[in-house]
């Protein structure tokens, strides 16, 4: 029996989870007494926080590299003993979705793990910041010059894997993104069994989330501290134990205390702490399998899609022959065979994406040509004229109308009055 299991059983026998959680909370308060979150409290940034009491520490916060404001509610969380680095953030708001994708691009991340539903118990927990094809197959974030395109979706037993293409509109560069979501995990609670969570952990590792060639994986739930913190704790402790000569020296409590100094409030409840022990104890029994899960990020699937888009546009028709051709191609390459419906959906999406890209490129070129023709001064004057005209035609339309009527009526009256006086004299 491992020392983690022994600790778990002892705490369980003594009904000590609430007591341990309170002790950890007190220790956390002492350790973070000098930590500041002044940037998050600036007036310009207050509205960018989902929760008023979940704010990123100044020293570990992620800074946006471009734009007028570098703030996003996100922190780097590192566990050096496990050679792990994560980015933990809140579930995007309507006003911060563009910042979220800007962070994904600037940090060169390839994997996103979403540990919340959009709506839970009739409460909004996260904005729909990604295209799911049921609503949109593509989302355009003009303010940060990024475009997110839906590529494919795969429904697993306990969660969903989606693939996106993230494109920089200015440079034309595209990057593949893997997105995990729809995992059953109640807010402020924990799953009933650790097995589905360990399967998710294995698949996330297998997707190449921790490939050192790319940026850290991005984890978020609603606040970005409870479920996300549990994921970090379980993954990092299992990694440490797998590569330690003295696994009994590894303290789950100390690792939790360490990651809490990088983002406030990681692991929100005693129940989540208990689940962390359970998941680690269960993971130790399959530790070799979990280690074998970890692989580099594989871009071959995305590269194949890009080649098909760029070099074989004529093949992207709706005919059954194209679908069969795609199926045969995957068989020849010894890749997992999707269903005909999946391939048909993928081909249709790529055809739509090609058309949108052409339209977008044409529109961008037209805008650039117009901007090139106009000088800065004329541009400013046009903006001023349009602004004044807009105000006159909207806000003051009624007063101007009545004013003109009054002016005309008064002029006629004055004219008649003057003529009458002349006749009298």
Automatic annotation (TrEMBL):
Gene3D superfamilies: Protein tyrosine phosphatase superfamily. Residues 195-274 form the Tyrosine specific protein phosphatases domain. It comes from the Eukaryota. This is protein-tyrosine-phosphatase. Its EC number is 3.1.3.48. The chain crosses the membrane at residues 400-418. Residues 300-311 have a biased composition (Acidic residues). One of its GO terms (molecular function) is protein kinase binding. InterPro entries: NR_tyrosine_phosphatase (IPR051985), Prot-tyrosine_phosphatase-like (IPR029021), PTP_cat (IPR000242), Tyr_Pase_AS (IPR016130), Tyr_Pase_cat (IPR003595), Tyr_Pase_dom (IPR000387). Its main location: membrane. It is an enzyme of class 3 (hydrolase). Residues 4-283 form the Tyrosine-protein phosphatase domain. Keywords: Hydrolase, Membrane, Phosphoprotein, Protein phosphatase, Transmembrane, Transmembrane helix. GO terms for cellular component: cytoplasm; endomembrane system; nucleus. Residues 298-317 are annotated as: Disordered. SUPFAM superfamilies: (Phosphotyrosine protein) phosphatases II. Belongs to the protein-tyrosine phosphatase family. Non-receptor class 1 subfamily. Pfam families: Y_phosphatase. The lineage of its organism: Eukaryota, Metazoa, Spiralia, Gnathifera, Rotifera.
